[in-house]
Each structure stands twice: as C-alpha cells, then as structure tokens.
C-alpha cells in the first residue's frame, strides 16, 4: 500500500514531467501560423491557370528555364505543360515531352519506355493542355519535412529554398504530392518554381506569365480586391489540384477536367 | 544527367521532375539502424530480464551494436548531395521533420550504448591499464594502448565488490532505458516513411511499428548468425592449438545451442508480429480500395510480385518460420533461418523504399529502378552496389577492431 | 568523484556542451523562426533578399517599346499580338549594352510550337491555323514566306 507522501510525490513528479514536453507544443501553436494574416499582411501571391486557353506552345517552359537558369537540355523544369488526349474508347493518354520545353510538335503521345502511341483524329473524344507549377501551398508539406530549415515560406506565401543551407536529402522532393521539386543539376540543392520571386517582388510578372501568348497564365495578389486574378478566383468556377491532401494549394485552374492528375 | 536519371526508367506518364531519388542507400539506412536496435534489444534481454543463458551473446551483441552505430550514419552521408552540411541536422533541427529527430536520437542512443559498454568493460580497462602501467619496457604500441586504456577508465579505478555491484546496477538501468530509445531510433525511421502523405504506399500509421518489429527481428538474427560464426572460428583456433579437450568442446557446443535456441524463440515472436502487421496493412489497402489502389495493386501484385511474395514473404518469412518451428533445432538450421530472415528484412526495406517509388505520383505511370552495378562515376558508386557493399562490410571491420579492446570471447577477457 | 557511476553522464554532457558551442559559431545570426512560425518559417532570413536579388533576364515588351515603338505597334495590330518580343528574340538581358544585338530565332521549330497542327477541337490549339511540319516545305524557313510581325493568311498574301 503506497504511503500518502509517496503518492503525492510521485503524482507531482509525473505531472511535472508531462508538463515539460507540453511546453514544446508552443512551437506548433496553430494561431502563430495564422498570425501573419491578422497582422496586416498585404500580399499573398496566387496563380491562375486557364486551361481553355493553353495551346501547349511551351514558351512558358522555355522562358522559365532561361530566366531561372535551369539548363535547357536537362530533363527537369520548374514548370511544365501536360497534354491530355481522351479517346472515345475511354482511355486517358497523357504526356509531357521534355516538360514541353519545345512545345508539342507531334500528335503521337510519348509514353517513355512504351514508345510513341499514335492517335488518329477520329479516336479523340477530347484533348487539352494543362500547365503545372509549384502551388505555393498554404500548408506546404515540403516545408514541414525539411530537417534543417533550408526550405521555408515567406510572409507573402512563396516557398523558397536556401541553396546554401540545403543538405540535399530529398525529403522535400518526396513530400510534394505534385512532383514539382527536383535537384538542380548544377547547384545540386533542391529546386522548384518560386513564382519568379525576384520579378514579382519588383512589380513585374513571372517569366511564364509574360511569355504566354494566350493569357493562359496569370499571377496576382489574393489580398488585393482589385486584382483581376482575385476577381476571377472569387467569382468564377475555379478548382485546385489534389485538394484531398490538405495542402491548400494556391494555383487555381479554370476548366480543370476530371482526368487531370 | 540530372540526379536520379542514371538509374530511373519511366513508363507511361510520370511527372517530368520525378525520378527515383531515394535509392539503395536509403534502403541500407533503415536496415543498418534496424540491426543496431535489434542487437541492443537482444543484449538488454539479458541485462534487464536476467535471462542467464544469454550472457555471452548479450555481451557480444552490445559490442556489435556499438560497431554498427557509426555505420548507420554512412548511408546517409553517401546519399546526401551535401554530406558536409549533414551537421546542420544538429545545428538547426526542424523538428516537424522526422529526419531532424536523427540528431538527438542518434546521439542519445550512442551515449547510452557507450555508457553501458563502459560499465560492462570498466574492470577490464582498469586491469589492462594497471597491467600496462606496471610493465617496465613498453613498446610503442603498448604505450599507446596504455594511454588508451587509461583514458577509457575515466579515472575510476575502484574494483571492489561494492563498485562492481554499482556497475552492474548501472548496466541494468541503462539497458532498460535503452530499449525505448532503441525503439525510437527505429520507430522514427518508420515514421519518416509512414508520415509522407504524398506517397500512397508509405502512408500508413502502421509503418513505425512494422519497422520496429522487423528491426528487432533483423538485429536478433544477425547476432545469432555472427555469434555462431565467431564460436565456430574460436573453436577451430582452439582445436588447432590443442587448447580445448574433446569434453569441453562438446560442452561448449551444447551451451551454444542452448543460447541459440533460446534466442530464436524471441526471434520467432517478433517475426510473427512483423508478418501480422504487414499482412494487415495489405489487407486493409485492398479492402478500402482508395484512389491509389489501382496503381498500387499493379505494383504489388504485378511488377513487384516476385520481390514481395516470393523473396520477402516466402523466403524471408515463411521458410525461416517453418525451419525454426520444427522440433530439435540444430545450429545449421538456425544459421540458414537467420540468413533468410536477414534477406527478408532487407527485401522489406527494398520493397518499401523502391516499391514506393515504382509508381508515379500521377498514378498514371511507373518508374523502374536499375541499381548501378559498376561505378562509372562518384554518383553511381555512392548510390550503387559498391556503395552498398562498402556500408555492409564496414561494421565487421569495426567490430573486429572493437573486440581488440573489448573482448567478447569468454576465455579471452581478463575476468 | 565519490560515485564513479556518474562519469559517463559527465562525458555525455560535455559532448552536448561542445555541440552547443559549435552551434554558436556555425549558425548564422538571422536564422530563426520568422513570420510563418516554426513549422513553415524556420529559416535564414537573409536568403529571401538573396532570391529577390536574382538577375532579371526577360525585360518584357514595356522595355522593348522604349527603343522599338513601331515594331511593337505593328505587332499589336496583328494576329501575333499576344507574343512577347523576347519569345522569338531571346531575353533582353543587358541589351543594348550587352548583348548589342539580339539573335532572331528563325528556326521552323519555333513557329511549329503553335503552328504544327494538332487536331484538338476542344482545345485552343485546334483553332490555330497549322500545318504538318514534316510535309509543308520542310526545306525552308517559315519566315521565307511568312512575316512574323504581321502574319497574313497565305491566300491573301498571294494577292
């Protein structure tokens, strides 16, 4: 039978012991994460893609590669365009040859190891192009899993990578559900689209937005009510990619068909 | 070539930036830490639960666990694009990431094992230091050894009965405290995979538990295997020098078989637990059939069928289970089972890491991994077969080195 | 020390102390928890400015207009109004200082990006007048017959 003194002592010890790790929860206080909106932040960058206007010309990919020093011949890109061809038989054929850096020059679908899949015009039920880029998520899983704080989100919502701090573990690349991250072939650190942070911070548009001849890409500030991008997002039927992952992506799509992966 | 392009083959639609980034070294890492954790738990079975028959194998596995510890870091250093920045995990850890736990857990575990080893071998260090101090003409090697043993004593020369009892008590405490840390050391590795919602195969809360159980299985299996091999080598040496009589040899062999038989009981327990959890995960996935099930099914039952069902479950789990459950266990059967178990645990790591990257995040394509065999470049060495062999071989070299100072064979130690 | 069992703990604490000292020297001063909290904002603040200072390559039509207003006007009235100068002429970089002239990409593959015909009726691509790149005068540059700054439908050109 435990003595009263021993009982009281043990209880205090246990409670004290539990209280110690509970203080660590302060680090993860969700209110602190939300605080930046309440403290009067003026800018939160978002992107708008209109898939009905995209023609798959690939000028965006070329401009991005040049603007952001991604080697043109390297088989990686900060942004890319996907082609979807849905046949009348119900098959969905998707490709993105070299990330569409040269556009789509042939009707054959590039299936990598399986070769080129020819498609006749009569077989096609519908076909369209979908540009993709980093969604600069509000709950970025890539930032969550970085073990050293090399990737992070700025107050205006852009997720950046500190090239000098990145250890190259690749956890952020595995953590992204959208497959936007890769290792830069020259710098060797993790790399991804950053909404041309050096351009938008200076009042310019991103390189891909400027390059697009059809107005399929737009960048804007969701906290600015007068921004045309904001107006479109608020008033028209827009969708996002892979909402079920809870990442809260900030790239909005007009005309996003159900086949899009 | 971008990182990953050299060994990845894509099929159908894979996102342009997707390659197999986590390769053989990421398979080796949980395998090695699993051996570390398992070896430690085995050693603790003796110290904490007082299973007397396991005394020799306990000492053995503790030293082996320590030899495996630096090796556990090697695959990570070989994998990182910037290995010299690896220290950042200790400098600016981001604890929302499971990998950041590495710094703290690893250091804590290392300190516990080192401390426990110190208490176990303190008497030996003191005896050797005193013996070398009294030696009049020391050779260069003996002088360095003297300094080494002196440093290792940490100045605690008291070998009285009370002091030794304190040592034993400390060992017990450390062995008990070390079990949850060893579990954490490997549980966090399971968490690294299980928490990645972006990967449909890895995402499951069962992952940390599956990893811990298979880690313990692999650690115990390795210790049994190396113990048997060491005993065999020692017996051969003794027989050649005529040191041990026939009667003693038979006695030693019987004691060895008894220790091995006891240990395999624990191996079986954890093996059954590990299999149960893995099958449970598979059954749940098939039953709930969520969005990713179509592509996962074609990977698990199609492309990876041989690796998963024939090698991992068949050779690695079912055959050893049968071999160990049959009555009248022999050393030979135990050796065969432990080798197969180790193969099974390695394949489990392979099937999780590589299998998880066998399908694209688009769920509309596949990626094939071709392990670089011959190193054409630094990259294909580090992330290829030779890099893996380098990691696999180092613990044995380290173990040999450690046993020069911390002997594990009974008649070799000074007490 | 009276009780030798604490010695390993002392050694361990020394090691931890050394790591903490190393941290003081190694970690930059501006590394810490910033606006987005610990989960999303744990970083070296100075890196944000480093990214903002990245050199700009594409200057956009606003810049080209300063010296080439008539070309811009001509394009603006044509079917190619949406295409920015630098798409075909390459990024301005330090032009006119460096490089003094910009190359003109006259290759077929440039025009083929939009004008290789793909039969996609449900996409804007299907609405662009296009040709089969392999069969339509494969020996010639497109610009031999077509004026990119104000392209006219071929039948009209003949007139």
Indicate the CATH class of the domain at 45-136 and 194-254 in chain A.
Answer: Alpha Beta
Largest sheet: spatial strand order of chain A:
11-1-13-12
Helix content of chain A: 10-25%
Strand fraction of chain A equals: 15-25%
Cα gyration radius of chain C (Å): 30 Å
Low-pLDDT residue spans of chain A: 23-36
Principal-axes shape call of chain A: globular
Secondary-structure content class of chain A: alpha+beta
Q: Describe the main β-sheet of chain C briefly.
A: 2 strands, antiparallel
Query: How many strands appear in the DSSP assignment of chain A?
Result: 13
Mean of residue pLDDT values of chain C:
91
Order of helices and strands of chain A: HHEHEEEEEHEEHEEHHEHEE
Which secondary-structure class do the elements of chain C indicate? mainly alpha
**Cα gyration radius of chain A (Å):** 23 Å
Describe the fold and architecture:
- The complex is a heterotrimer of chains A (261), B (415) and C (159).
- Chain A is an alpha+beta fold and 261 residues long.
- Chain A is built from eight helices and 13 strands.
- A four-stranded mixed beta sheet of chain A has the order 11-1-13-12.
- In chain A, β4 and β5 form a beta hairpin.
- Chain A is globular.
- Chain B is mostly helical and 415 residues long.
- Chain B has one domain: Up-down Bundle (Formate dehydrogenase/DMSO reductase fold), CATH 1.20.1630.
- In chain B, strands 1-2 form a two-stranded antiparallel sheet.
- Chain B is globular, with a radius of gyration of 23 Å.
- With 159 residues, chain C is mainly alpha-helical.
- The longest helix of chain C has 20 residues.
- The model of chain C has no long low-confidence stretch (mean pLDDT 91).
- The interface between A and C is large, with 63 and 47 residues.
List the helices and strands and how they pair.
The complex is a heterotrimer of chains A (261), B (415) and C (159).
Chain A: H1 4-23, H2 30-38, E1 45-50, H3 59-67, E2 80-87, E3 92-95, E4 109-110, E5 116-117, E6 124-132, H4 141-144, E7 151-153, E8 159-161, H5 171-175, E9 182-183, E10 190-191, H6 197-200, H7 207-211, E11 217-221, H8 228-235, E12 238-239, E13 251-254
Parallel strand pairs in A: 1-13
Antiparallel strand pairs in A: 1-11, 2-3, 2-6, 4-5, 7-8, 9-10, 12-13
Chain B: E1 8-12, H1 24-49, H2 55-79, H3 88-91, H4 101-134, H5 140-153, H6 161-194, H7 207-240, H8 246-288, H9 293-303, H10 305-325, H11 331-353, E2 365-369, H12 378-382, H13 385-405
Antiparallel strand pairs in B: 1-2
Chain C: H1 7-26, E1 31-33, H2 37-41, E2 42-44, H3 46-52, H4 61-65, H5 69-76, H6 85-89, H7 108-115, H8 154-158
Antiparallel strand pairs in C: 1-2
